[in-house]
Description:
single chain; 304 residues; alpha/beta; Rossmann fold; N-(1-d-carboxylethyl)-l-norvaline Dehydrogenase, domain 2; 11 helices; 12 strands; globular; Ketopantoate_reductase; EC 1.1.1.169; NADP binding; KPA_reductase; pantothenate biosynthesis
Amino acid sequence: MKIAVLGAGAxxxxxxxxxxxxxxxxxLIDIWKEHVNRINEKGLIIEDENGKKIIKNVQATIxxxxxxxxxxxxxFVKSTxxxxxxxxxxxxxxxxxxxxxxxxxxxxxEKIQSVVGKKNIIAGTTSHGSTLLEPARIYHAGKxxxxxxxxxxxxxxxxxxxxxxxxxxxxxxxITNNVLGVxxxxxxxxxxxxxxxxxxxxxxxxxxxxxxxxELLEIAVEEGINVSKAKKIILINEDPIEHTxxxxxxxxxxxxxxxxxxxxxxxxxxEMINGAIVKEGERQGIKTPINLALTNLIKIxxxx
Length: 304
């Protein structure tokens, strides 16, 4: 399969590197010139608790004119720029090119749909964790399951084929007939963890060490649950609050992606996470004061 990864950050490099171990032709697309050049010159280094491996049969580029039409595009850019990042790479999108978003937050499907047809889009979530250490070097911090599905809930041949390709490359993958429920499940976890850790500079597990942060987590997720019910989203987890706390325990020493963004003075995805709960709540006539407060406080930190 010919695969392009749009956004060669920590997660893009992880998936691109793993998929290139098989018989796939993989292209990493990014605007960071030093990163791209080092991958092409020395290979991509993936480290984990067992050591490191150097992936040399992956190609990186800034210019997509040399790639040609691909079978699959994995979108791993920041949710805030999904549509802006897709428009310049329309030259590699053919009639049957699949575009898979495994990004955080809400709105990515709609942003992709503004550039290509809905029939080309599939969606999902990932439980993997990865950190970019330096150009062409990442650390695979946590392994998990990749969940993918058709937006219209069908179980198609193309989604089955994609699962087989991912599985052959040692990416544990399952298919869901409720991909929107899966996306909302992960959204609620991010709603409960990301902004609070970014504001307090606590690691995930430390949120449960303080009554105040645990209470904020509970209320933020509860507001999200209320909005999801109004939208008639069928959630996967029966108790999203407890599930979020479980994720905190399982990733106890992790710095959330939003905390990393704040530390590195990067723009966060707050509008697609807590901000999305606020916007959807307004549409449904549901008040979400804690998520509004968290959203506004993160915006202030971004300005500073």
